[in-house]
């Protein structure tokens, strides 16, 4: 099974709704990164690892803070691959890397794809890469069967929504609100209608995120999507010293 197909299958076969957990690589401490991944894998159906970047423009204060701290500890894309290569435990959950484009360009697309396959990465989410400019990365990922996940938002027009859903691989990332990650607790009133439109346009699982903080929200989003993505709230739990598996279990409806 290709990595991107394994990702889709894991989300489809998960207890509904599937839970996709995001953590910034090497945060809060680089030495604990592999332990955090192992704990996340106990409960999460897919794991999204954030590649630290100096200007994470789609992210709110929490992920910005974690990204800058990880960079100060020397965390890089090369470091992440090295950590994944040395893990001595199996991860039940597929792994994705969420990265802005510059670190991927600096690594080199062909080398990136080859190394991702070596260490068991299933795909990439690149929030600042427009669909119209994605062909070079997509072509590099294709031989290894790696996913390039597309993001849609409530402001995406219907024709572009169809194009993005048609181009996405692994799953479609439905941003639940305009703006940045984290944010207010209340979901927008039109969330159900919006997610219904995304599901109608997609043949892949639809996972929704941005601003998800508690089990009530997971249940509300899960009524209209295949999976729910949790990031800032998990990072804040790790900052409090909470075990990742315990926190994620608490989000299950």
Q: What do you see in this structure?
A:
This protein has 253 residues and is an alpha/beta fold. The chain has a single domain, classed as Aldolase class I (TIM Barrel, Alpha-Beta Barrel), CATH 3.20.20.70. Helices cover 43% and strands 15% of the residues. It has an 8-stranded parallel barrel, surrounded by 9 helices. α4 runs parallel beside α6 and α6 runs parallel beside α7.
How far apart, in Å, are the first and last alpha carbons? 30 Å
Global Rg: 16 Å
Q: What number of domains? A: 1
Which architecture name does CATH use?
A: Alpha-Beta Barrel
Task: Output the keywords.
253 residues; alpha/beta; TIM Barrel; eight-stranded parallel β-barrel; 15% strand
Brief overview:
The protein is α/β, with parallel strands linked by helices and 253 residues long.
Secondary structure topology:
Layout lengths: L2 H11 L4 E7 L8 H9 L4 E5 L10 H12 L4 H10 L8 E4 L2 H7 L1 H11 L1 E5 L9 H7 L5 E6 L5 H10 L4 E4 L15 H11 L4 E4 L5 H8 L4 E4 L1 H8 L4 H6 L4
Parallel strand pairs: 1-2, 1-8, 2-3, 3-4, 4-5, 5-6, 6-7, 7-8
